[in-house]
Each structure stands twice: as structure tokens, then as C-alpha cells.
Amino acid sequence: IVNSMEVKEQLSYFPIYKGHIKNKLYSDSVPINNYSESTLPSGIYCWSMRDLIKCKAITDVASNPLIINLVSDYLGCLPTCYGINCMLSIGTSGHGTTKRHRDSDDFKFLSLFIYLDDVNLSNGPHVYELGTHLGNPYGAKGNEVPDYPVERKIFTGEAGSGFIEDNWGVHYGMPLAPDKKRKCLWIRYGMY
After folding, report:
1. Is residue 175 a contact partner of residue 95, using CB atoms and an 8 Å limit?
2. Does the model's pTM come out above 0.85?
3. pLDDT tens for residues 91-138?
4. CA dist 122 to 11, 126, 173, Å?
5. d(Cα 43, Cα 156) in Å, to the nearest integer?
6. CA within 20 to 30 Å of 41's CA: 32, 33, 63, 103, which one?
7. Could you tell me which residues come within 8 angstroms of residue 189 by beta carbon, excluding any fewer than 6 positions away?
8. Distance CA 171, CA 10 (A)
9. Residue 155, C-beta contacts closer than 8 angstroms, at least 6 positions apart
């Protein structure tokens, strides 16, 4: 989907922040400049959306007509691109993104995930529980994370590859091995 080396080169001009999203709820918003991935402690880091939208390679893929058409078909309307984020995961973190969860950003929304590093079973592939975007028919409200067996799809892939999913479905990132790292870009599209 993208040239991952080009995206990573553009990202190298910007600081990173502790947390999976740079906002008041999930980050201390203190920029980390002149960092080396090999010396950062285990954890989850991210770039600011303000900086991400300055990266031409990212805005080009976010506005790609093929992706916009696919998302429009699913949503039934022209989408709003309301979120762009890039996470750097290093080693084991125990972060909430590695636990089964649903996102509830909009009435209907999709996320385009793009791996910026090669991803295998040891460095945090994304897992999606098939059919869970339709809700939980056995739950009291229908939005509970299922406690019964659900078929899973594990997304491994080469740097630059990606996939689109409905994030109301149950998903998570598998934990990384202690000595592994992974960069993953996501672009979110919704109705509003």
C-alpha cells in the first residue's frame, strides 16, 4: 500500500510521545526527540497527528481514490477521515491495545492499518475476531466482547502491506517478544 521506507524517513523528522495516542487521556504529551529505537524502554509510543499529516506519503494513502471508494461503499456515504495515528511498539508492554476490545468511535467506521515493519508472530501482529462487528447476540446489550469461541484472523505481513477493518469488531495486537519492535500506521474513516 505504501513504501514503508519513505514513510519512516518522513517520520524521522518528528518527535514521538509515550502512549498509543497523543492526547490528554493516553499520553503525557512530552516530546521525545533524538531517540534511538534500540535504547527506548519497552512500551508504546506514537507520533502526533499534527506531524503525521505533514508526511506526504501518509496523506497520499489516506486520500487514495481506491481506498476512499472502498470505504464509501461500506459506509454508504463519502467518509470523513477523522484520525491518523502511528504507533511504535517496543518489547513487552501489557498495554490495553494487546487486550481484546472494541472501538466505538462512530456509528459505523473503518480503519486502514499499514505495517511499516515486517510483522510476524513474534512482533505483534493484529488479530481480528471474524463476525464480531455484527455484535454479540448472547450479550445483554449486544456490544459485549464475546466469551465464547470466535474464529480469529491473524494479520502478518511485509512492511508497507495493510488491511481495512470495522473496528467495532473485537480486535487486538498480539504482545511482542521482549526484543522485538513494530511500527503500525492507522487511518480512520467514519460517517461524521
Report:
1. no
2. yes
3. 988 788 889 999 998 889 999 999 999 999 999 999 999 999 999 999
4. 24, 11, 11
5. 21
6. 103
7. 71, 75, 79, 80, 81, 82, 109, 110, 111, 112
8. 28
9. 113, 119, 125, 126, 127, 128, 163
